[in-house]
Design goal:
five-stranded antiparallel sheet, about 375 residues, Glutaredoxin, globular, 17 strands
Length: about 375
């Protein structure tokens, strides 16, 4: 799950993270139903608002959070750190922040796509809106098999309430929140809306279901990678192309993502160097199918000198890959049958690092 409102605003402009970008996906977006039931889920909840397997969490939103289709609720998942296997930060977005964001986006859309400096400035201004988000609570997944680290100690010290939700195997799940909302500097209307949303935290705990976390690698690996779709150039393509190579490197990227774009030239060079090892490189453009994004992707690839195949995700890719990963770029490797080999790689890497990953995976399938 991602920073929703601002991510949507930034999408189509550019993401300025140095390593990886959150994929845009709405809080109420339909999650693909897993073909394999997770046995550790304590009850079968068919319709949930949010399901995050990597955190071992699924939940519904309480009443006030659901208003206006949940557009005022932001859900963000930081990367795991130390013994914290996962965090889910839930915040309230004020109406005036949303209105200002869309006004800024409207102006940013007028910037020529070739004016990278102006685009980056506009995105930086949009990202400043994050500071206006008003925190509600945090759900933390703790791996008790690891020693308590500095990150957990500092995080827990910030909150008056640290409610244990449940224990599952070696994982503990906590809901962190303070007794009162910080309404300093808010208008009367905003204060009322935020306090009403804050009052729902007491009802939220009962809407949370926990289970043993499933890593992105586990989630993606349980299905053979298959697709039948088109390349950006409109050529028919399907997963039978895997049979032409011993190993295929699949780079999932987005047109809004700076680190994704920055590594494209290196990936092109890599694709040429590893051909002799019977290794192929392809890309999946995560923010397609979309006519405008497809054209933008073509422009980006042309500028970066990329000639390896880039494809538009079909429903199978969306359900079995894109819905399972939180950040782009994410890279996975498959063998000639479409089986995932090794762990997924999240974030950008250098050419030499990718070469080492390729060598390690080739050893695993020999």
């Amino acid at each position: 799950m991602k920073r929703r409102i601002i991510t949507v605003l930034i999408t189509g402009v550019i993401c300025m993270s140095m390593v990886a970008c959150n994929q845009p996906k709405g809080v109420n977006s339909k999650q693909a139903e897993d073909e394999t039931k997770i046995d550790t889920v304590k009850e079968d909840i068919k319709d949930v608002d949010v399901k995050l397997d990597e955190n071992g969490i699924q939940f519904n939103l309480p009443g006030k959070w659901k208003e206006n289709e949940g557009k005022n609720i932001d859900i963000y998942r930081p990367l795991p750190e130390e013994n914290i296997a996962g965090q889910i930060e839930i915040s309230y977005i004020l109406d005036e922040t949303i209105a200002r964001g869309f006004a800024m986006k409207k102006e940013a859309d007028k910037i020529p796509k070739t004016d990278e400096e102006a685009i980056q400035k506009a995105v930086a201004e949009l990202r400043e809106l994050y500071k206006e988000f008003k925190e509600l609570c945090i759900i933390v997944t703790i791996d008790t098999s690891k020693t308590e680290g500095k990150v957990q100690k500092e995080l827990f010290s910030k909150y008056e309430n640290k409610d244990l939700i449940e224990k599952v195997d070696n994982f503990e799940f906590y809901l962190l929140y303070n007794n009162k909302a910080d309404v300093n500097g808010l208008s009367e209307n905003s204060q009322k809306a935020y306090e009403e949303a804050y009052g729902e935290i007491k009802n939220f705990k009962s809407l949370i279901t926990t289970y043993k976390p499933v890593s992105e690698t586990e989630a993606v690996s349980k299905n053979i990678v298959k697709f039948k779709t088109k390349t950006l150039e409109g050529k028919e393509i399907d997963s039978s192309i895997f049979k032409d190579s011993k190993l295929t490197m699949i780079n999932v990227w987005g047109t809004f993502c700076t680190p994704c774009i920055a590594e494209l030239s290196d990936l092109q060079k890599l694709s040429e160097e590893v051909k002799s090892q019977n290794v192929n490189v392809i890309g999946i453009v995560s923010d397609t199918p979309d006519k405008d994004n497809e054209e933008l992707a073509k422009e980006i690839l042309s500028k970066k000198g990329v000639t390896y195949t880039n494809i538009i995700p079909d429903e199978t890719i969306i359900n079995n890959i894109l819905e399972k990963i939180a950040l782009v770029p994410t890279t996975l490797f498959v063998d000639s049958e479409g089986n995932v080999v090794g762990d997924l790689i999240v974030g950008s890497k250098g050419t030499e690092e990718y070469k080492k990953e390729i060598v390690d995976r080739l050893k695993n399938i020999e």
